[in-house]
Amino acid sequence: MRVLVIGANGQTGRRIVEHLRNGPHEPVAMVRNPDQVGPFEERGVATVVADLEEPLDSALKTSNAEALIFAAGSGGDAGPEKTLAVDRDGAIRSIAAMEAAGLRRFIMLSALGSDPRSENSSISHYLRAKGIADAHLCRSQLDYTILRPGRLTSDEGTGKVDVAPDPDSGGSISRDDVAAVMVACLDQESTVRTSFDLLTGSISIAEALGGIDRGAECPSSSP
């Protein structure tokens, strides 16, 4: 499949593109700044320039993508306005563009603790934005997978994960392992229309994903 990677120039997004390049699927990197095109093209990766804060129908059509991985994020340190523009509204625009194009496979990078009603956290605005986007995706007719990783690190990937961790553990996982899981989900039927937490663990990615129950709980509440 051709896979449009939204947020391709981010730390996790670049790793997703590399995992796609090394597998059976073809990445298309969506970037906001034309100056970011060169490094991707040098590695033989197709690109499309588009602004996540604008409608994405044209970008999706231009990419000729058959699936979409949403890896964009403002990060917990961004202010509420930017967080809503990227993590909530940008994700919702992506979902709308997929539906309008008649495409179905959508992999969402969310966050551990995402909740439309999150309170009493220093990053509640971020968790609410992620939670609202997750809930919107769950209400769609898309074949979605939502990953909620813990704190992201730049450590080397281990290939070992936990998809059912203690929700209060506050653990972490490398960006490389998150990227590997997101790409693996494209070919794992058990992950369709599922949502799960993700931390570093002791089980191989293939085994962990194969053990996911189809229809695992997905946040569906609205703020």
Describe the structure.
With about 220 residues, this protein is an alpha/beta fold. The chain contains seven helices and eleven strands. A nine-stranded mixed sheet has the order 3-2-1-4-5-6-10-8-11, with helices on both faces. Helix 1 (about 10-20) crosses helix 6 (about 175-185) and helix 4 packs parallel to helix 5 (about 125-140). The model has no long low-confidence stretch (mean pLDDT about 90).
Tell me the name of the CATH class. Answer: Alpha Beta
**Biggest beta-sheet profile:** 9 strands, mixed
Bin the helical content. 25-40%
Strand order of the largest sheet: 3-2-1-4-5-6-10-8-11
Could you tell me the strand content as a percent range? 15-25%
CATH hierarchy: architecture: 3-Layer(aba) Sandwich
Number of domains: 1
The sequence of SSEs as H and E is EHEHEHEHEHEEEEHEEH
Mean pLDDT: 92
Global structural class: alpha/beta
| Number of beta-strand segments | 11
CATH superfamily: NAD(P)-binding Rossmann-like Domain
What CATH calls the topology is Rossmann fold
3D shape: globular
Radius of gyration (Å):
16 Å
Distance between the termini: 35 Å
Task: Describe the structure concisely for a colleague.
The chain is α/β, with parallel strands linked by helices and 223 residues long. Helix content is 35%, strand content 22%. The protein has a 9-stranded mixed sheet, with helices on both faces.
What is this structure's SSE topology?
Elements: E1 2-6, H1 11-21, E2 26-31, H2 37-42, E3 46-49, H3 57-63, E4 67-70, H4 80-101, E5 105-109, H5 124-139, E6 143-149, E7 151-153, E8 160-162, E9 172-174, H6 175-185, E10 194-200, E11 203-204, H7 205-210
Helix pairs in contact: 1-6, 4-5
